[in-house]
Amino acid sequence: METLKYIDPEIFEAIREEIERQQSNVELIASENYCSTAVLQAQGSILTNKYAEGYPDKRWYAGCGKIDIVEKLTVDRAKEIFGAEHANVQPHSGSQANMAVLFSSLTPGNKILSMDLSHGGHLTHGFKKNFSGQLYKKITYGVDKETEYIDYAELRALAKKNNPDLIIAGASSYPREIDFVKFKEIADEVGALFLADIAHIAGLIVAGLHQDPVPYADFVTTSTHKTLRGPRGGLILCKSKYASKIDQYIFPGIQGGPLMHVIAAKAVAFKEAKTKEFRECQSQTIKNAKSLANELKEKGYKIVSGGTDNHLFLVDLTNKNISGREAQETLEKAGIVLNRNMIPFDKRTANDPSGIRIGTPSVTTRGMKEPEMSQIANWIDLALNGYKDNNTLKTIKSEVAELCATFPIYNVDTALVD
Ligand code: DSN
């Protein structure tokens, strides 16, 4: 990236420092990951120059022959890894994937039954300040107060009482396996469409480590950069009967020209997702999440629902005399990066909630295993107990950096994609 360094040293320097930050911190944000250098190279390619409104063999502009090769490969690979009848690889994000599904299947005023945001749901599933909450009526299900698992009996009762037009399964902070078959049964009982938003768990599903909704759901949406380890973007999978409507709602419905450089990078990620290395990494991601949750539990931390089945878990800090926000800020000073998070039935606010969310995709991609999870748990405990002591936090930060140096992510030059 000598050219960028010469033309725009400020941006170059910010990118260089961000690589160093990613390299020298323990990243525990459950929705983040480190994509491969091959994905970075496709995403940083000259495909960004091409306008390609439309779909393969049906473009508006000339010169799309090579672009068509890229998009067809991406679609074929998406269909193959997920076993889907149809794939649209153009959504710029998971949110736009959801927008296209909602616009194509509902009319304003229709009812959505989806998970409460504070129990783990997502903004695009009907949050009042999101388009989904402004256009549609939201009814929420949540977790059981005792078990903190999804309360399927409540879900069924709510569906029967409210007759929703669409039921959404999927979450951004739910640590337990989702029973998509049960969702489908309930949707069928009330004549609702069924959307599974698998943004967080897509990689686990591809690796066969989580129940797969593709055979059951009318629509499946995901972002491509979380456990799936691709570029930042979105994807829609659906039954053939919905294909043309979905395609029309993505383009020209809500998007213009597709981001072909990102689509190429999705193709690379989907190819990588077929490898043994990817499956092993997904399996280790779950083992690491279980191990880190157990280590913290042994130190007296309350883990929501008692543990995890996937790549993330929530820590309820109410017995620790520290808020989620304070914990996030303290841990960042110690080189451990995660996010504050509401816990089910939280008495505090979203901005300063009672919990933190911990995820293991990033640390696993860089090669960390159970021994490192044990070390990370020690640091988290030490930092949260000594959160007013800047010297303790500084010492932890340098130990974290030392460990991280033994698990390199990118060669800095390669990551800058020369
Ligand atoms: N912001 C994402 C997450 O962290 O889960 C969801 O879109």
TrEMBL record:
Cellular component aspect of the GO annotation: cytosol
UniProt domain Serine hydroxymethyltransferase-like: residue ranges: 5-380
Signal peptide stretch: none
Major place of residence: cytoplasm
Domain of life: Bacteria
Keywords for the protein's UniProt record, in alphabetical order: Amino-acid biosynthesis, Cytoplasm, Methyltransferase, One-carbon metabolism, Pyridoxal phosphate, Transferase
EC number: 2.1.2.1
Cofactor(s) the protein needs: pyridoxal 5'-phosphate
InterPro entries: PyrdxlP-dep_Trfase, PyrdxlP-dep_Trfase_major, PyrdxlP-dep_Trfase_small, Ser_HO-MeTrfase, Ser_HO-MeTrfase-like, Ser_HO-MeTrfase_PLP_BS, SHMT-like_dom
Keyword Isomerase: no
Annotated positions for site Plays an important role in substrate specificity: H225
GO biological process: glycine biosynthetic process from serine; methylation; tetrahydrofolate interconversion
Quaternary structure and partners: Homodimer.
Chain's role: Catalyzes the reversible interconversion of serine and glycine with tetrahydrofolate (THF) serving as the one-carbon carrier. This reaction serves as the major source of one-carbon groups required for the biosynthesis of purines, thymidylate, methionine, and other important biomolecules. Also exhibits THF-independent aldolase activity toward beta-hydroxyamino acids, producing glycine and aldehydes, via a retro-aldol mechanism.
Family membership noted in the UniProt record: Belongs to the SHMT family.
Protein name: Serine hydroxymethyltransferase
